[in-house]
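If you are new to this repository, start here. Below is one unmodified record pulled from the training split, so you can see the exact layout before writing a loader.
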Amino acid sequence: MYDITIIGGGIVGLATALRIKEQKPSLKILLLEKENAVAKHQTGHNSGVIHSGLYYKPGSLKATNCIRGYQMLLDFCNRENVPYDLCGKIVVATNEEQRPLLRNLFERGIQNGLLENKMISAAEIKQIEPHVNGLEGIWVPYTGIIDYKTVSEKYAECFQKLGGEIRFGEKVTDIKNRNTHSEVISESGRLFETKLVVNCAGLYSDKVAQLTQPENIKVRIIPFRGEYYKIRPEKHHLVKNLIYPVPDPNFPFLGVHFTRMIEGGVEAGPNAVFAFKREGYKKTDINVPELLEALAWPGFRKVAARYWKTGMGEYYRSFSKAAFTKALQELIPEIQSDDLIPGGSGVRAQACDYDGGLLDDFSIIENKGAINVCNAPSPAATSSLSIGQTVSERVLARI
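And here is the target side for that same chain:
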């Protein structure tokens, strides 16, 4: 019998396991991961940015966990010798309509405690990023770059050193709630008895949540694929660090941007297109049952109706390198189509409610036998130890 069974070996599941084990070493904790290693999906496919907390509504779970998690992450990396670089970033307004949005974003950053952020002029933008076109911007010195797969592996190592157990190749297919415990059943036929389930299954978090509480899960995960290009080495000089556009406040994505990577090189992207498979990293990846299930969800149909024009633009950029290049040229006019080579992609697990709302905040749903982390997209990697702390407090209050 385990005290806690955590489902999902991404960065949030690992951070949660580690934080619980650190605070209560005597607990018997099991982490189940369906793949053969940690960080195989969202965590291992993101752009490796340490987020400052600039974008998130003050007082929200995203804001509070990102700001607390930021410092927890840096402290962990310093202690465990995980490399990172606080290189800073700029957010750039390229037209007059974006100026008010930029200033609102700056004020939000101040409300979130980012007092070292600075409004910068067009001339100051050129001093930081000489090739960027912008009317004005925000300099965000807190932002950095890191490899979250490396972080995840270190979380796993620390958890196991404390006596935690990780089992790979164990895809959870059923959870049976008993009076005093739950039975977690994997595809291999193994049964794990546990006092409490913690669901950190990312792209399948809603599916696992339905196993623990079939009647009251009012959200569905809608997968959005983000596709990246890499900048050819001879054009790396165009990008010093990180360059972002002013985001659309009505859409939960940050727009195509430039990111210097911790391991070297520069990425451009991502776009955001509806994926036809939850783990669909290629345009040709389709899972018909998952696709039909998403299309049948009333909330998704409402989202599609509301954002069809934005969505079509994202799909156009997905299939048209020229259109992708044009979007990048708003920030760096010198960038050319020939400077871009195909890069990687990731899939974001975006929770969508029944009424068509794309959840803008982290979502944690509790029931008798489980704690379900049902919406933890970006900045969950930056926030991971803080989310883990939040979940661990709820766990320890019940164990």
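Two things worth knowing about this chain: The first strand starts at residue 2 and ends at 7. The chain has a mean pLDDT of 95.
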